[in-house]
């Protein structure tokens, strides 16, 4: 695999000249992923985690206020892979709402266990779960207002998936390995169902640790285009929209803080909704009709010129109302 491009933030004149300034657009608009070494090395949470997992645990508990979180538990034999069961009829884990401090207790109890059960809390709002944490541990995005989430667990493997927003993933404790695939590798990743997923996003069915190339032969082409990097506490990864990413927690105690934001206006719907409508209304048309509708989409949606009037919030509101009327018939 190829390495992900890197910037050494501790020695970058652009990033260290005035840390109070927001991250530059050259990074946040990058068309390719970027590892930002040491971007959040000054966070108190990172400093605590570098001392020990117990120090990071104690630091988090300062901000805990009886919040409950959705916690995932899987038996040791899953090897940390959050995935389907053997026949894809269900999942190899179970999830339930528990107090956040109970998750910390369980992680602490299994720190020295050679084969612990998988313990994992996915995308959870920091401001809801740990109010005040961002006052001491945050990234300056300027006028952007990203959604800030925390992820915490032990050794886990999250199958390759994509996110619609841009993403800044900051390793606050432990060590993580990211394996990335460009969006154009979609056909080579053997993606599972859109409507039945482990955590909301469709995922690659291929086990990156043991790829079955007899069953998934095109995955070899995806591997040829893959990029990978290991991040320590204090490092961050900028991940552009739609890049597929396989994420592994490599230590018994891992914390990730991530920020999601979109470069499009707030009034725009997610393109995923359009994909679902396309599956219902376009995919099974006769070939000639499907080709004609492809021309319609090229003309109205994907054309690079400005032949059509630009859409604004009022126009989007009118189109949404029309669509809702049509769908409710």
TrEMBL record:
<dbReference type="Pfam" id="PF13621">
    <property type="entry name" value="Cupin_8"/>
</dbReference>
<feature type="domain" description="JmjC">
    <location>
        <begin position="119"/>
        <end position="276"/>
    </location>
</feature>
<protein>
    <submittedName>
        <fullName>Cupin-like domain-containing protein</fullName>
    </submittedName>
</protein>
<dbReference type="InterPro" id="IPR014710">
    <property type="entry name" value="RmlC-like_jellyroll"/>
</dbReference>
<dbReference type="InterPro" id="IPR041667">
    <property type="entry name" value="Cupin_8"/>
</dbReference>
<dbReference type="InterPro" id="IPR003347">
    <property type="entry name" value="JmjC_dom"/>
</dbReference>
